[in-house]
Amino acid sequence: METLTIGELMTSRVARARPGTSFESLVRLLRRRRVSGVPVLDRDDKVVGVVSEKDLHKSREKTGEHRGTAAELMSSPAITVHPEQRAVHAARVMGRHGVNRLPVVDEEDRLIGIVTRGDLLRLFQRTDAAIRADVEGRVLPRTARASEGAVRVEVRDGVVMLDGQVPAGVDIPGAVRQAWRVDGVTGVVSRLRTGCGARAAGPERAPAG
């Protein structure tokens, strides 16, 4: 479960609107699908914008009426992401642009899914035990090259603590960066140190290559 991609996290069944969809139809669509925003697609199913509840409220406050089409109400151009990108990229884009959802598009900009802030929050609901298993089973064998048990791993509230001796030549900062990349990690504390007496892992645990 290390470094989830947007494609693994997104929702494929997406509520959608067309540029000519009316204000009333948009309200009904949001209520029926229990979502707070929908992408707007052109004839080729390419995303041209996004209409949110906030857009509808702003229009109603401005005009005092329930009117307008999706093309008039939407935020455009749409901010989109691709399925092969990492979930953390989507989180950064949301934070930078102040949005709660991102349409996911293919190489031709056609809609294939949507990822929401709620989807991303699931990454940080991983148990400490699951995070520890990823660090011990996938990160340390590739980066620290230490024998089994030479590095102690503790995880508390998503914060990974690494303590132990690794063989000389190990890139400790690189190992720390890889631990940061594990989904659900909120911090890394390293007490790793190199030593001539540290024993490297056997061939079965050594990284390929």
**Element-level helix/strand string:** HHEEHHHEEHHEEHE
Major beta sheet, strand line-up: 5-6-7
Low-confidence parts, pLDDT < 50 over ≥5 residues? 198-209
The biggest sheet, with number of strands, parallel, antiparallel or mixed sense and barrel status, is: 3 strands, mixed
Gyration radius from CA atoms, angstroms: 23 Å
- General shape: elongated
Mean pLDDT: 86
Distance between the termini: 23 Å
Count of helices?
8
Please estimate the helix content: 25-40%
Structural class: alpha+beta
Give a count of the beta strands, DSSP E runs of length 2 or more: 7
Question: What's this, in brief?
Answer:
Helices cover 34% and strands 22% of the residues.
Descriptive notes:
The chain has 209 residues and is α+β, with helices and mostly antiparallel strands. It has eight helices and seven strands. The chain has helices spanning 6-9, 23-33, 53-63, 70-73, 87-97, 117-121, 128-143, 172-180; strands at 37-41, 47-52, 101-105, 111-116, 151-156, 159-167, 187-195. The strands form three sheets. Strands 5-6-7 form a three-stranded mixed sheet, covered by helices on one side. A two-stranded antiparallel sheet has the order 1-2. A hairpin with a 2-residue loop joins strand 5 (151-156) and strand 6. Helix 7 packs antiparallel against helix 8 (172-180). The longest helix has 16 residues, at 128-143. The model is unreliable at 198-209 (pLDDT under 50).
